[in-house]
Amino acid sequence: MTAPVFRFAPSPNGRLHLGHALSALKNFEMARETGGRLLLRIEDIDLGRARPEFEQAIYEDLDWLGITWEEPVRRQSEHFSDYEAALDRLKVAGLVYRSTATRKEVADEIAAREAGTGKAWPRDPDGAPLYPFGSSDSSADDVPSAWRLDMRAAIDRIGQDFSWTETGEGPHGETGEVTAKPDAWGDVLVARKDVPTSYHLSVVVDDALEGVTHVVRGRDLFWSTSVHRLLQTLLGLPAPVYHHHRLILDEDGRKLSKSRRDTSLSELRAAGATPADIRRLVGL
Ligand code: GLU
To answer: Which intervals hold domain Glutamyl/glutaminyl-tRNA synthetase class Ib catalytic (predicted)?
Structure first.
């Protein structure tokens, strides 16, 4: 039997905080307990926000926590051609369309529909309004544009319910075999205008290319797994086992954010915290 493969996949657009520490430590420990491997992936497709000093700080923070990972580290910005190849397959399959509406056009359309129906426009599991336009726009091929998945067509293509194996827990205690509900996300972005990929697309391509068998991450990404399983099924990629863990909340019960300095690992370290303190703070 081949060894399980885990990965920690932070985005270098801010300092790591206690929530990241919990994720990284869980991945590290689960890999160790199962005789598995731990990979580190830098998810830096957001070229406007990713910064080398944040990437450097990720290595320092993980090192300080006593976490070790396999080299080489995969940096997503160096693999755009892999994501583009997957995007091309979705294009050939007729499952994606160009998304050219501006933020303002989207906001105006939603406001108009809400005014027209007197009902709130549906929102995705993250609370963002669903994209209100369909695949009507087939404008010139050579214009750079974002791409969206035609959710209806994608679900119809699979033609049956699909699920994932969850060994952690969802927001309402979902565990075991969880039925995916990708339609809750509407026509998700599969490629941004500036890069030929999106979070959803690159994460499934990389998990497959790197042979990841176990995805361990925060519960805030639980329902994203529906989209990941959909893309995996459409692209013929294997399904890892998923484990979503509890989130670390601030005093007001909110999810920690990268812009909050007081819970960043580097600030805590500078204030004299030890790795053992961090483990205690995250409840390990
Ligand atoms: N890069 C994502 C983040 O930092 C995590 C992606 C994942 O674990 O699937 O939130």
So the answer is: 7-276
> What are the φ and ψ backbone dihedral angles of 14, each rounded to 5 degrees?
175, 180
Ligand 1 pocket, mutate which of 43, 76, 256 (most atoms under 8 A from CB): 43
Q: How many helices (H) and strands (E) does the chain have?
A: 9, 10
217 CA to centre of ligand 1 in angstroms: 7
Q: How far is the CA of 145 from the centre of ligand 1 (A)?
A: 24
Write the pLDDT tens digit of every residue in 186-222.
999 999 999 999 999 999 999 999 999 999 999 999 9
Question: For 86-99, what is the HEC assignment?
Answer: HHHHHHHCCCEEEE
> What are the residue ranges of helices labelled H in the chain?
18-33, 52-64, 80-92, 103-117, 151-158, 199-209, 224-235, 265-270, 275-281
For residue 177, the cross-strand partners are: 165
Ligand 1 center to residue 43 CA distance, Å? 7
Q: Is residue 283 part of a domain?
A: yes
pTM, two decimals, is 0.95
Q: How far, in Å, from the CA of 25 to the mean position of ligand 1? A: 15
What's the structural domain count of the chain? Answer: 2
Higher pLDDT, residue 279 or 139? 279
Q: Scanning the structure block, which residue is given the tokens 């976490």?
A: 67
Q: Mark whether 162 and 86 lie in a shared domain.
A: yes
DSSP structure class, residue 238: P
